[in-house]
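tool_call: predict_structure(chain=1)
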Amino acid sequence: MAKRDYYEVLGVEKGATDAEIKKAFRRIAMKFHPDRNSDDKNSDEKFKEAQEAYEILGDEEKKSAYDRFGHAGVDGNSGGGGGGAGFGDVFGDVFGDIFGGGGGRGGRSGPARGSDLRYDLQLDLEDAVKGKTVQIDVPTLSGCEPCDGSGARKGSSPVTCDTCGGAGQVRMSQGFFSVQQACPKCRGRGQMISDPCGECHGQGVKEERKTLSVKIPAGVDTGDRIRLAGKGEAGPQGGPTGDLYVQMHVRDHAIFDRDGANLHCEVPISFAQAALGGELEVPTLSGKVKLKIPAETQSGKLFRLRGKGVDPVRGGPVGDLLCRVILETPVNLSTEQKAFLQDFDKSLAGNSKHSPRTNSWFDGVKKFFDNLTG
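tool_result:
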């Protein structure tokens, strides 16, 4: 009987990526694996067919030969028990987690490592820019003191697992192949707790709330994080401790907006200040400074105060403070004030030198409509 096309067997296109090929094989393997279909001979055949296809398509050189010459280019390099990079590598690469083991890639795994933790820290902009030491409370799992994290009652010790003999691995045989996997009884540890600790019930860890001191370096920003090695959860039954990652979140500021190393702020000015010029006091994160406003300053003008921004945590030049002046229209005018402004406006009418932007804008509008009608 002629072999089916390997791409057809796995249900992928010829141009499929390695990841797509592996994913397709994994799906078929989980569906038709003999351990899951012990009474179905057809499943066994489909599994072997998929294994053979993946052995070829999962290998770059074999795949290239197959793409050029078809089955003739790979005869003798596939089919269930051949040597070389064959089935052992395929199984370890793709099937390991189906059976919960490590695919036979090593010996006893030992106690599991504790989980890493994340703590979201809210910071004011001033503290993020200048740096600060803060105290944080972290709920975590710590090593059980009565049993020193072993999980065994004080005075007793873990015993060697009688299923794997302390190796943490067992070998499974199914048809034409054999695979090593984590021992299901001791979960790869090689030891069992025969007399568990009454405090932690054999887990070696218990819930606790820790208070930690965290030094925040100057210049951090939202998204930055600090790793505190060994401050995460303790591993079960004496396993190594995970890490704690402190994630920075800088609160919005009432005056400043941050853009990397630079700070931005808006400074309201009156019509008289904009027209006649003068000096303003503007805030920075290190105190007040004088900002000189030239006469005839237009609304939206941007002024740069060099070195008044942020000193970045990863190095580089200190940023600037960029002040954008915004002309504030007066409100709640008295009758006398309104009359004064009307008289002032009349004094400007008809003289283009007082309003260069207005006149250039109207000239542009006129030209635009002339082009439309012309």
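agent: The chain has four domains: 6-95, 117-250, 257-327, 335-373. Proceeding to next step.
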